[in-house]
Recover the amino acids of this structure.
């Protein structure tokens, strides 16, 4: 019964501007490879060697695939919260309800509180954040005064589940 999934969410980076930048950089470098290697013309005013251009192009393509692999998974069960920010966390991190002093859904300001999205360390005692988009998150406050914010795109559904858990814990 404790393994029953009460809430599940999987998120990826879907910001159009982020993917626009990644695609534009890769397209520019692939064009540079075509011009310099296939057509035999120097690409740019101060061109890289062919080897350097190929290495830089391959690295940016690998970076794009790394961004594609980023995924924030959150699962809530009666026994606790499971979270994984893949590929940084291969396995789920488990947080038992007993080590939490508070848990609630709240709005947050990604740029000013955490310096953006991703795996972040907050400023001025805000704790750690795992976020990929939006401005709503599950705030965990631990009994040892640490904090963790987990971003969510389903704040209403998550708040409802947390409310049911509070009632369950009081019975």
């Amino acid at each position: 019964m404790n393994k029953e999934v009460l809430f599940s969410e999987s998120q990826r980076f879907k910001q159009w501007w982020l993917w626009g930048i990644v695609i534009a950089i890769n397209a520019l470098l692939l064009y540079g490879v075509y011009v310099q290697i296939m057509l035999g013309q120097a690409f740019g005013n101060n061109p890289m060697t062919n080897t350097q251009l190929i290495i830089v192009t391959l690295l940016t393509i690998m970076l794009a695939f790394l961004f594609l692999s980023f995924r924030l998974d959150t699962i809530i069960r009666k026994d606790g919260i499971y979270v994984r920010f893949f590929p940084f966390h291969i396995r789920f991190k488990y947080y038992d309800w007993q080590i939490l002093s508070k848990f609630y859904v709240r709005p947050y300001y990604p740029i000013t509180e955490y310096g953006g999205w991703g795996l972040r360390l907050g400023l001025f005692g805000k704790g750690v954040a795992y976020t990929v988009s939006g401005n709503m998150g599950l705030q965990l406050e631990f009994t040892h005064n640490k904090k963790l914010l987990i971003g969510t795109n389903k704040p209403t559904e998550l708040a409802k589940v947390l409310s049911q858990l509070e009632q369950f814990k009081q019975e």
Observations:
- The helical segments are 16-38, 50-69, 110-114, 155-170.
